[in-house]
Write a structure and sequence with these properties.
single chain; mainly beta; Methylamine Dehydrogenase, Chain H; Immunoglobulin-like; 7 domains; 6-stranded mixed beta sheet; elongated; Ig-like_fold; membrane; transmembrane helix; transmembrane
């Protein structure tokens, strides 16, 4: 329950306890609550409005009235602190308008009672007062259609009374009568003029036979006297039934005893067609079984009581709060608690005591609890309020529809619903429950936007038929201007009937609805067909085709409603018929499109790196394309924009998460669908790579190169870096930019031609994921290269002319470079033969003291035949391993070889010479090694013998 509602409810319940509604209070406190159950009932309840305790106030505690305009009017208590109560209007269909909010100041506060509409059309009522600020209540008037409240009289709590808990009744003398619950000692009964002049008629003593604590106004009976009840006082202090004459003479006709006749009567006695009064007692905690839950009684004008029904507190309720006479001659009322669910009941009782529960209030979260007295309206249904429960736990306005429709209590029937201008029309009226002077006090009103309705004003005098029990009359009027006129008749200040007459001829009846809003599958749909002209009300029907599946047409209201079950197009023809005695009809061909609901299908968006371009298209389905997108709240990442086509694009300029809402509307006519969705984009910062420049080698000599490498690294899970690296030596780029492959970039530098220290840096360009960076330098040392040197070991050689000598040449400081060798100073016909360079930087040098003139093997030249044969000796020695036969065969082979060899060798030493030998002598041979631009030499002394 809202905290703003608790004080008002507690206040209301305290007064109902005083009025005898102990059981209702106990139920409200939860002591008698039982689980909601299925129940068979003879009427249904519809909730027209659930008060929220905000702009519409809260805790309505009294019956409604129906004014001459056909609307319902009522009061709320408020919460006694920030909300001091209000006056409101509500249409029979449930549209509520707050007319006035009490301030708790000079206008007082807390209107407990219901309103009445006075004969001048104004709304009259009372306030209980503001207990906090110390005010004692007031009598007020709100002019009909106005918003400025007139405070007619302010009670002071002394002899003139105070704290009026009851409303007013208008007497046949044109004055208003009411009661106070306090003031003096036990309350007062007063008369107040429309101008606010108050006269105290009776000041109750608070004990004894006179009664005390009046909680309802009296009723003016057909004998001209006023009859009413007090909540306490009398012989047993359980209240009295009293009479007040026009001269002001007060008589206590009956004292309630609480022993079979009930106690603490509640509500104004109701006059019946049999000339008796009917009422209810609420009982209180001092009464024991069977009266503790209240009674329904019949009272003669002479004070003879008959108990018609005793409440059991369970199935039929407890603590009745008053009765009204229905149009069918039965009594209707509400019990503030009890019933099947412990939250109160609505009931019907005949004048002979046959009792029927019409409805038991159930969950406090739906149909409310603690109902107030009922009103029967011009549609035959009953309307009422609950001071608690409902959707917001702040009270409700409800409609009770009997299973069998009842006639309206006040009826007006015009002789014609449409007349030419200048013709008269007769308004015949009748009231079905006018069994007292109060209910026969009926006055006229007109609702129209035109002028000249005719002479339909003031009190309307009728005739009561004792046989039919109908009070009726008529008036013939001649409207003086064209237009529609709604004539109203309000009786007793609480119930009304209306009739509409169109003067000057009705306009042609036409259906003005030309197209219908698009419907959506499985989405509640409601739109009203509209017509003009003719004579309202209209009746609607389908003559051709059918509505989309799931939709229906209400014949009375013209509302197409329901939930479509399938997409598609439906074409149909509607007909409207007016209420003229000779009805006019009009038709219109209409179409309705049913589409799938518009839904945003983009559920998430990918992340983006700062500095990157971004483009993502939002998507939706259903509705009628094309769609129009808007950003409805939040912020996109800086640098991005949403186009109306749903494209999010731009270049992100700042990192961080961004959450925003987008809305999309379709192109349906005349009402477009629109839905909203929440999305987010994470703008991720650029990755800052780590890495270092490495050199291999980091020290070189002039003329050499080095390999420069940049290896990039990033946190685990990062994408692979791309981009390019420009290497720089002492601020000057060298080489072209090198692409980063697998996080690495390498480049062989050019040869450095100057000694010194070089800073080799790497400028990384970055990529969409990585930040561009310049990496710290690696230091390259370029030094002067050591002198090239060679050495021969031995450096003194001797060779026989025609033979050769060999030495080893060692090369120093070549550093692996290519070496060119040369000899100079050789003797005539001598040559230098250099062998391959070993890994240790040495080579062999053979100086041949001859030159070769043929392809003969020079190494065999000058040898003796014996020496040449010597190399065959190992084979010959191996013959011992063979058998005798095989040795013979091998020896024959060797002999042949010797023959060939001897012949060949003799050919090399004699015959035509193929070589030229060097002359004998000593020479200084210079051996030169060249590496690049360096040359080194060594001296060899060669002696040819």
């Amino acid at each position: 329950m809202p905290t703003t509602n608790r004080s008002a409810r507690a206040f209301a319940m305290s007064f109902r306890r005083i009025c005898g509604l102990t059981v209702a209070v106990v139920c409200q406190l939860g002591l008698l609550l039982t689980p909601s159950a299925l129940r068979a009932q003879t009427a249904t309840v519809s909730i027209l409005h659930s008060f929220a305790g905000t702009t519409d106030s809260q805790a309505p505690n009294a019956a409604l009235i129906q004014a001459g305009d056909g609307n319902l009017y009522g009061t709320t208590l408020g919460n006694l602190f920030t909300d001091y109560g209000s006056l409101f209007q509500i249409t029979p269909s449930g549209t509520l308008t707050q007319l006035y909010s009490f301030s708790g100041g000079s206008d007082s506060a807390t209107p407990f009672a219901s309103l009445i509409q006075g004969s001048d059309g104004g709304l009259y009522g009372t306030t209980y007062g503001n207990l906090i600020s110390g005010t004692d209540g007031s009598v007020f008037k709100l002019p009909f259609g106005g918003t400025t409240l007139d405070t007619l009289f302010t009670f002071t709590g002394d002899a003139n009374g105070g704290f009026p808990f009851a409303g007013l009744v208008e007497g046949s003398d044109g004055n208003y009568y009411g009661t106070t619950s306090g003031g003096g000692i036990g309350g007062t009964l007063f008369r107040v003029t429309p101008a606010g002049v108050l006269t105290t008629l009776v000041s109750f003593s608070g004990s004894g036979l006179t009664g005390s604590f009046l909680t309802s106004p009296p009723v003016e009976f057909t004998d001209g006297n006023f009859y009413g009840t007090t909540n306490s006082g009398g012989v047993s202090n359980f209240g009295v039934f009293y009479q007040l004459t026009p001269a002001g003479t007060y008589s206590a006709l009956y004292s309630f005893t609480g022993t079979g006749d009930g106690a603490s009567p509640a509500g104004t006695p109701v006059a019946g067609s049999d000339g008796n009064f009917y009422g209810a007692t609420g009982s209180n905690a001092s009464v024991t079984t069977p009266d503790m839950n209240g009674t329904i009684y019949r009272m003669t004008p002479g004070g003879v009581l008959t108990t018609l029904h005793t409440f059991n507190g369970t199935t039929d309720g407890a603590g009745p709060v008053g009765l009204i006479m229905g149009s069918d001659g039965n009594l209707y009322g509400a019990a503030g608690s009890g019933g099947t669910n412990g939250n109160g009941t609505l009931f019907e009782v005949t004048t002979t005591g046959t009792f029927t529960v019409l409805y038991s209030f159930g969950s406090t979260a739906t149909d409310g609890n603690i109902p107030a007295a009922l009103l029967q309206a011009s549609d035959g249904n009953f309307y009422g309020t609950t001071s608690a429960g409902g959707a917001n736990a702040a009270g409700t306005v409800f409609k009770l529809s009997p299973a069998t429709a009842l006639p309206a209590p006040v009826q007006i029937t015009p002789s014609a619903s449409m007349i030419p201008l200048g013709d008269p029309v007769t308004l015949n009226w009748q009231v079905l429950n006018a069994f007292s002077n109060t209910m026969r006090y009926c006055y006229a009103s007109v609702q129209t936007t035109a002028s000249g309705p005719g002479a339909w004003t003031g009190l309307q005098t009728g005739t009561y038929n004792a046989t039919t029990h109908i009070y009726s009359g008529s008036a013939t009027i001649t409207p003086t201007a064209s237009g529609p006129y709604t004539y109203g008749l309000t009786c007793g200040g609480v119930e009304s009937g209306t009739a509409t007459v169109t003067v000057g001829g009705a306009q042609t009846l036409v259906v003005t609805t030309s197209n219908l809003p698009q419907a959506r599958v499985d989405v509640a749909y409601s739109t009203a067909l509209v017509a003009s002209g003719g004579v309202p009300p209209y009746t609607w029907s389908l003559t051709v085709g059918s509505l989309p599946a799931g939709l229906t047409l209400n014949a009375s209201s013209g509302v197409i409603s329901g939930k479509p079950t399938a997409a598609g197009m439906a074409n149909f023809t509607v007909q409207v018929k007016d209420s003229d005695p000779t009805p006019a009809t009009a038709t219109a061909s209409l179409g309705m499109t049913v589409v799938q609901p518009l839904v945003i299908t983009t559920m998430s968006l990918p992340a983006v790196r700062v500095g990157s371009t971004y483009s993502q298209t939002l998507t939706a389905t259903g509705g009628t394309p094309p769609y129009i997108w808007k950003q409805s709240s939040g912020n996109l990442p800086a640098g991005l924009q949403l186009s109306s086509a749903g494209v999010i694009s731009g270049t992100v300029t700042a990192a961080g998460p961004a959450t925003f809402a987008v809305s999309v509307s379709d192109s349906a006519a005349p009402v477009a669908q629109s839905v909203t969705g929440n999305l987010s984009i994470v703008a991720e910062p650029l990755i800052v790579p780590t890495g270092a420049v490495t050199l291999s080698p980091s020290t070189i000599s002039i003329g050499q190169t080095t390999t420069v490498t940049l290896n990039l690294s990033a946190p685990a899970g990062s994408p692979v870096a791309t981009g390019n690296v420009q290497f720089v030596a002492n601020g000057a780029n060298f080489g072209s930019p090198v692409p980063v492959v697998n996080g690495s970039a390498s480049l062989t530098s050019p040869a450095f031609n100057a000694t010194g220290s070089y800073e080799i840096t790497a400028n990384y360009t970055g990529d969409p994921n990585y930040m561009a960076l310049n990496f710290p330098p690696a230091i390259l040392a370029v030094t002067t290269a050591p002198a090239l040197a060679i050495q021969a070991t031995p450096s003194v050689l001797s060779a026989t002319s025609g033979a050769s000598a060999t030495t080893s040449i060692a090369v120093y400081n070549a550093n692996g470079a290519a070496i060119k060798f040369a000899c100079s100073g050789l003797p005539v016909n001598a040559v230098c033969n250099f062998g391959p360079l070993s890994s240790s930087g040495t080579t062999s040098l053979q100086i041949a003291a001859y030159t070769t003139a043929s392809l003969s093997r020079p190494e065999l030249r000058g040898r003796s035949i014996a020496l040449n044969l010597a190399w065959l000796l190992p084979g010959m020695l191996a013959l011992g391993a063979f058998t005798r036969k095989r040795r013979r065969i091998v020896l024959l082979g060797i002999a042949a070889l010797l023959l060939v060899a001897t012949t060949s060798l003799s050919g090399c030493s004699g015959g035509s010479p193929a070589t030229a030998d060097s002359p004998k002598g000593t020479s200084s041979v210079v051996v030169t090694a060249t590496v690049g631009s360096q040359t080194a030499s060594t001296l060899i002394t060669l002696t040819v013998q």
